[in-house]
Amino acid sequence: MSIPITTTDVRLNGYVPKISDTDFEYNPMQTPIAQTYIHELKHKKNASGATLVSDGLTAFVVRAAFARMATKTIDLQTYIYSNDFSSRVLIGELKNAADRGVKVRILLDDYGTKTDFADVLLLNQHPNIEVKIFNVRRHRSRLLYIPEMLMDFNRLNSRMHNKLFIVDNIALITGGRNIGRDYFPETTSNFSDTDVLFLGQIAHSATEKFNEYWNHHLAVPATVLPKAKSKIAARRLQRTFEKLLKNSARNVRRYNAFITWTMREFNKQNFDFCWGKGTFLADLPTKVELPKQRKEKYHSEIIIALNRLWKATKQSAYVSAAYFVPGPGGVKTMINEEKAGVHVTLVTNSLSSTNAPTVYSKWEKYRKQLIDGGIDVYEFMRGEENNRHKKYNHERRQHFFSVMHSKTIVFDNKISWIGSFNLDPRSAYYNTENVAIFESEKFAKKLRDLILNDTKISWHVKNRGKHTIWTGIRPDETKPEEHFLDPDTTFFRRVMKKITKFIPEKLV
Description:
CATH topology of the largest domain: Endonuclease, Chain A
Low-confidence stretches: 4-16, 385-400
Oligomer: single chain
Strand content: 15-25%
Mean pLDDT: 87
Number of helices: 19
CATH superfamily of the largest domain: Endonuclease Chain A
Distance between the termini: 30 Å
Number of domains: 2
Structural class: alpha+beta
CATH class of the largest domain: Alpha Beta
């Protein structure tokens, strides 16, 4: 099967939108979510509230709770959607909201969705739910994927990496999390990540950016996929929801208890919101179609804002970057800032914790120069596989995660940067991304403390002559360790790291 990817082709394919492509007409300030904090929203002109969502269970529960509180619209944009328990429970909440009359729009990246059999695609059959897939492969056969990738590499190598969850155009959740078991509680959160729940003006800006993607010709309706129209599969999905309630009753009851408590705490105004000025930025969806030469010179509003923030910083910067490949320009900026009196603390993945060793091999070549330039460098410790049932430690986020996935920065303990944007060439030139910038000293200090807590479960990396040294104390241990090779790695993984150094940096 071949999929059309132009606006004209999509319309000729018989697509008629179930939900208006213009904003659903209602006043967000009149919704129950806004009314709960109406005093703050009205008396803090153009301000937004923000609260951290730093663990997987909370990230899942907050999304589900706001889906239950929705009365008008829910917009979900994500790079990865995985067919697993947590995802099915969450899309069950979206379906329940649609049953109440809430208009739901779901925008998925084609590569991140992986399969035409994804449960979420079947929701498109609901009259109040519309699902679109961004930047699709024309040929759906797996056998033709590689040939098509080679023939149309420039477009298909660029992905929609944005991550948004917007409710009633007044509440926004954004950050590093996709929709899947690695980000939610099913595996006690394999990924250490950071989201933020915003309330207020910034959600309106996020909706405007979402609409740009939703209305773009590369956003193809799920109706063009035969498997998404299968009535048999839809009935099977309904039975799956019923089985979730029956066979996983204990977990569902556990989630329900947390969700109900979260809704109650929100309605009591017990959420720990910090109020300040929020700015939402996103790449234009046309970025994925730019010719290769223009992509590599592309300076989006995200890059421009980041450069301005660095130049305006006077004292400190705390960086949590899962995939950090600064390039010569980024290295120069950070070292110049350090020389100017701005102390930089950086946390990124170690070779043992990263799920992208190719990216690590590129980061490694800049590490020595940064350390010699005065930057405090930390690499995240890999978690123990048998630790998934240990008691959660909120101060350290968990005794051990496997992978750090955050993308956050704090400038001068005043301005926070949170979003999907990795500090690497792929985010800068190829993928589309989104970022929230929040000006609040109170919130910035909370995010800074979260980054500092991650340094406690990370290796402090230093240079000793020509050698790199990793030092640190593992959680629940008292004896410091010192390593002269990448800690907790096998000989094979270290060899693979060396081999991947031959891959061009802009392709990782």
